[in-house]
From TrEMBL:
Membrane topology: Multi-pass membrane protein
A Pfam family assignment: ABC_tran
Molecular-function annotations in GO: ABC-type transporter activity; ATP binding; ATP hydrolysis activity; lipid transporter activity
CDD domains: ABC_subfamily_A (cd03263)
Protein name according to UniProt: Nod factor export ATP-binding protein I, putative
Domain ABC transporter: 438-680
Signal peptide residue numbers: none
Length: 821
């Protein structure tokens, strides 16, 4: 009988109870493996009943009959065949194999089903009880055999290794997040802004360390709770929980300092986060596996593998993710499997001699990893502080400056200096700089290729070339120039962010190189790009930089409130900086520079990205700052309009040099080449258009033939224009003129309306030029003509200015042109 998945509860007819069972194995190539055979006496009614219930498959009663039947019919039914019963009429072979003359019935089961043998036995016995009316039901429970101690240890080891990988993957993100934030502050110049505002290097790194470590401890607590929740015995047993907690606790500070150290290698936040995550996962898992494999390969297969593994282990332990991963690995393998002391140390000689594979050696616990993590937590922090100090002081800086001085400025990169620049240079050289608020004396800055240890003049970049100027209280000094002129580099040298290759910068009587911290207490700095932290509010930014300037208590509150009011930011005091508009971000950057009333304020393109109204408002704030607070304001700009509106003196910087220097009017009188006039004319009126049509012989727009006069050929247009003397001579200097454009493009026709509009504007411009010449203009040049918009360059006669450098010229164009403008 074959029992399928839908027929397991089908009862059999009444018979005698079955006898005990023997286990034998079937031959052949069927899927059915070990089967059970009950004792069945040849004269028992039960065997006869079973035979009458199920039609015999084969009268030969051979075992092969059932095997063949199961193979041939396995695809004939929707339900799968899992167990089958065979009752043999001639059971001589079976009885001989079992060694029992009473064996008659065979139980078959499909090995593709889990625990099929137990299920077959259960089905057969329950079927017999049901057939005989016995109110008994047998339930089979498949329980695995108890694990041996070795199997239990293997399970703990496997669980520990998988847990180690999971922990490392989770904790790999902690240093990456910290590193990306540090790089973000460097990338957005927040770190430079803090330094210029008075934050010391030591305070910067220690503040980060305290916060990051405290936050990491919260993550450690969550990780320990998860290990307990999932009952990770390799780490949470009574003798192992303390080493596990110590590993995680010491990883918290070492992960922070490790992230600080590698942040010096990155320039962008994205690369810092991505590379650090991959590096941590690789070192914490792949390298740990490689080291552990090298340490367990038998010596007969590789003599130097153990040495190589140990060398890699001691080197990579300096990287906290490896120390954490290797410590967890030792807890899972050495402590749980080999029984090594979890506090054992190879450094202090407290390791345990054990045999792993064919190697017998002294194995330590996690003590060595704890030592390395503790070392990294302190040493890397001190190293970061030292590296930061190295960039602004010390022998390394002196050595770099000596290298830079060996790279003189090539002659072909030096332009002739204007007389005013030379006079300013001589004046600054003779000043008593100890009494000067701001003095820049012949400053030069040369960049060598990154990492260069020798001077290479051919690869040096000269950003600033001998700049000199001085500014007094209440003065606004402007640096005007295009991108790449050296303005921002000059700023950063004056702020102490870059050391000058040559020359000196004096701030409030002290050179920046001699006492940078003292000089910065007198500075306020607004960078070219907003150095804001997106998650901090406007008020929090001002409070932070106010505290850096030494303000406390009610003085701080008063300064923050007055700055918000002065910059019209009161409505945004509690808004996060990341949600502010571009103009309000620039206002906040200026506020961070001026809070605390610094004696010198550096503004690097303060009005960039502002609308005209906000720009004018900010100009008023800057003027008030210079006049009422008697501060020195130094700003950079691209706009001559802004420089003229704000600055008492302007230096135009080109290629790192001051090309000219003086008051705005002085520069215009000496180097100006006239004026520009921009005009916009009204469209041609219907009356004027009708007159032009009549003058050139084109049918009126109101005539019956007007439909034929919407366009005309180029030849007809030329013939029409010949009726207007001296007009065609102007076409060559009018870009975009209708007739010339049609001629160049090979067009065969032009619109009459366009031609009429061009003639009308041409006549208006002729009248304007005649008026300008009569008003004393020696030269007029049409710079641009687009539609009804025109732009002229005009030069008055004798345009040299008066003795005071002022140009004396007033022309009332509006009254002359009237409504045509």
């Amino acid at each position: 009988m074959v029992i399928r998945s839908a027929d397991l509860n089908k009862p059999l007819q009444k018979s005698n109870a079955p006898r005990p069972w023997h286990v034998i194995h079937a031959g052949g190539d069927s899927n059915f493996g070990p089967f059970w055979s009950p004792y069945c006496a040849e004269a028992d009614d039960y065997c006869d009943t079973l035979r009458t219930v199920v039609t015999p498959l084969d009268q030969s009663s051979s075992l092969l009959a059932m095997q063949s039947h199961l193979r041939e019919t396995r695809n004939d039914y929707e339900a799968s065949s899992y167990i089958a019963f065979s009752h043999l009429d001639n059971a001589t072979d079976l009885q001989r194999e079992v060694g029992d003359p009473l064996a008659r019935t065979v139980l078959w089961h499909n090995l593709t089903a889990t625990a099929s043998s137990a299920i077959a036995l259960n089905a057969y016995v329950n079927a017999w009880f049901a057939a005989h009316g016995v109110d008994i039901k047998v339930t089979v429970v498949n329980h695995p055999m108890p694990q041996t101690l070795f199997e239990q240890n293997i399970a703990v080891v496997v669980s520990g290794i998988l847990s180690t990988i999971a922990v490392i993957w989770a904790f790999a993100f902690i240093p990456a997040g910290i590193c990306s934030y540090i790089v973000m502050e460097k990338e957005k110049d927040v770190k430079a802004q803090l330094a210029i505002s008075g934050c010391s290097t030591t305070a910067y790194w220690i503040a980060h360390f305290i916060f990051d470590t405290a936050f990491n401890l919260f993550t450690v607590a969550v990780a320990i709770a998860v290990l307990y929740a999932f009952d990770m015995e390799a780490f949470t047993d009574s003798d192992k929980i303390a080493p596990t907690i110590m590993l995680l606790l010491l990883f918290a500070p070492s992960a922070s300092t490790y992230a600080y150290l590698i942040s010096f290698l990155y320039k962008t936040q994205f690369s810092a986060q991505t590379v650090t995550i991959v590096l941590n996962i690789a070192v914490g898992t792949i390298v740990v596996i490689v080291v552990s494999v090298l340490q367990t390969i038998p010596e007969e297969f590789c003599e130097d593998c153990l040495v190589a593994g140990n060398v890699l282990m001691w080197i990579f332990r300096f990287i906290p993710p490896f120390a954490l991963g290797f410590g967890f690995y030792r807890m899972a393998i050495y402590v749980s499997f080999l029984g090594v002391d979890p506090w054992g140390s190879e450094i202090f000689g407290t390791c345990t001699n054990k045999t792993l594979g064919t190697r017998n050696q002294c194995y330590g616990g996690v003590a060595d990893d704890l030592v390395y993590l503790a070392f990294a937590g302190m040493a890397y922090l001190l190293l970061c502080i030292w590296l930061d100090h190295l960039g602004t002081s010390g022998k390394w800086l002196s050595y770099r400056m000596k290298l830079e001085k060996r790279c003189p400025i090539p002659e072909d990169q030096l332009a002739a200096e204007d007389e005013d620049v030379v006079v300013e240079k001589e004046r600054v050289a003779k000043l008593e700089k100890q009494k000067q608020i701001l003095a820049v004396d012949n400053v030069r800055k040369c960049y060598l290729p990154r990492g260069s240890l020798v001077a290479d003049p051919s690869r040096a970049v000269h950003a600033v070339k001998g700049v000199s100027f001085a500014a007094d209280s209440g003065q606004v000094f402007g640096l005007l120039g295009i991108n790449g002129a050296g303005k921002t580099t000059t700023f950063k040298v004056m702020c102490g962010l870059y050391a000058p290759t040559e020359g000196e910068v004096w701030v409030a009587g002290t050179t920046v190189g001699a006492d940078t911290s003292k000089c910065r207490r007198n500075l306020g700095y607004c960078p070219q790009f907003d150095a804001l932290l997106d998650q901090m509010t406007t008020k929090e930014h001002l409070e932070l930089y106010g505290r850096l300037k030494g303000l406390k208590g009610h003085l701080l509150d008063s300064a923050v409130g007055s700055t918000l009011k002065q910059l019209s930011l009161e409505a945004y005091r509690d808004k996060r900086a990341g949600s502010l508009s571009g103009g309000n971000k620039r206002k906040l950057s200026v506020g961070m520079a001026i809070i605390g009333r610094p004696r010198i304020v550096f503004l690097d393109e303060p009005s960039t990205g502002m609308d005209p109204v906000s720009r004018r408002f900010l100009w008023g704030v800057i003027q008030q700052l210079a006049i009422s607070r008697k501060s020195v304001v130094v700003l950079t700009t691209h706009s001559m309009e802004e420089a003229e509106a704000l600055c008492s003196r302007i230096a135009i910087q080109v290629g790192g040099q001051f090309r000219c220097l003086g008051s705005p009017q002085r520069l215009k009188s000496r180097f100006g080449r006239g004026y520009e006039v921009s005009l916009k004319y009204d469209d041609v009126t219907e009356v004027a258009a009708e007159e032009i049509r009549n003058s050139i012989g084109i049918a009126s727009a109101n005539s019956e033939s007007s439909s034929a006069q919407l366009c005309m050929s180029v030849e007809d247009a030329r013939a029409a224009l010949e009726k207007i003397p001296d007009r065609l001579n102007r076409a060559s200097c009018l870009p975009g003129a209708v007739l010339r454009a049609a001629d160049e493009q090979g067009s065969h026709a032009i619109l009459v309306a366009d031609l009429v509009g061009w003639i009308d504007l041409d006549e208006k411009l002729a009248k304007l030029e005649a008026f300008l010449r009569a008003s004393g203009i020696s030269s007029t040049v049409l710079l641009e003509r687009h539609g009804t918009n025109v732009r002229y360059a005009i030069v008055p006669e004798g345009h040299d200015g008066d003795a005071n450098g002022r140009s004396m010229m007033t022309i009332d164009i509006t009254n002359h042109i009237g409504k045509d403008i």
